[in-house]
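Thread: Modeling a multi-component assembly for a lab meeting

Hi all, long-time lurker, first post. My supervisor asked me to bring a structural picture of a complex we are working on to next week's group meeting, and I have zero experience with this. I have the sequence lines for every component (375 residues in total). Could someone generate the structure of the whole assembly? Inputs are pasted exactly as I received them:
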Amino acid sequence: MQQPHPRFSVLSGSSLSSAEHLSPTASSTRFSLPSATSINTALGTPKPGLRPNIYDRNLNKTRTSEVSASAFAFLFSEVVQYTQKRVSGINDLERRLNTLGYRAGTRVLELMVWRAESSSKAPKREIRFLPALMSIHTQVWRAVFGRPADAIEKSVENEDEYMIIDNDPPIERHISVPKDMNQLSCSSFTAGVVEAVLDGLGLPARVTAHHTPTQQFPSRTTILIKLDKSVLEREEILK
Amino acid sequence: MAIFSLWVINKAGGLIYQRNFADGLAQLTSNEYLVLAGTLHGIHAITSRLSPTGSSSGAQVIEGETFKMTILLTATGTKFVLLTSLAEATADSVLQRVYEAYADAVMKNPFHTPEMPIRSEGFDTRITSLIGTGQP
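Re: Modeling a multi-component assembly
Sure thing. I ran the full set together rather than chain by chain. Output:
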């Protein structure tokens, strides 16, 4: 393992705090979790006319439902503004967006595995890198953005680098990055999601996003995956 | 049938976007445009208080001999002004679509500061596809 990635501290911090709010007596004002009483009533018979608690809803019910793109655009815009106020440069901003995406990605993977297990007869967990990459390109993209990504490429120069290409990333559709920060790609959030899914499948990698516009697709974005050495070594053994 | 110019005026009366599309109006400096926008803001405030029958939306169209200006006032106080030829019949629908583009490409852009001049490439692109190419 190389030097500890900053997001590990984020994760360990959040796991600590989640241990905190497992105990109903812990009073935490920082989290807007429903109070212990509402959890208790939801476990019993729900009161008529009262909508069930979001935690008690069936996860499969929302599989095909969609989120308003406008609402998400406003939310993501606020996320970027909030983050931008607290960083000291573009690299820092991208790293923070990546961390946020990572935290979303761990949940995306968990949900997708859960749904695959309950819906398909032969649920499958990818253990090799290429099938995992394919499933990220199609399944993860479809779950998160509603359509598969546009292409997968393998780097010619470095054998540990792979790329997922999205010609028009939905999270950047309304974002115009000013000229003085043109290296910034807000798809760092997506890169974080990909990194979390790969990590969760046991394929650690460093994932970054790069804006690679073409004449036809001005917001074309490349998600660059740089695999950990251990993954390549294992792939070699599994061959 | 021509669209001459588009202005966006913020709720304080400042001109935050101005773009010319066709020749036909006098060329002004950016400072003169700012003054005119502020004046229009004041005129609009007066017209909205003149109504004898309660509240009014204020001036919607101001016509001259050679051109007319169509004003769209949004619920948040932002004004979209389109300067067109007298025969132009699509001004209202164009303004509605400009408002839509503004909501999408400006308000959803994290790098835009509300009430400040619009410097969003996405908005320029949308306006170009909506109205046509501006002058260089």
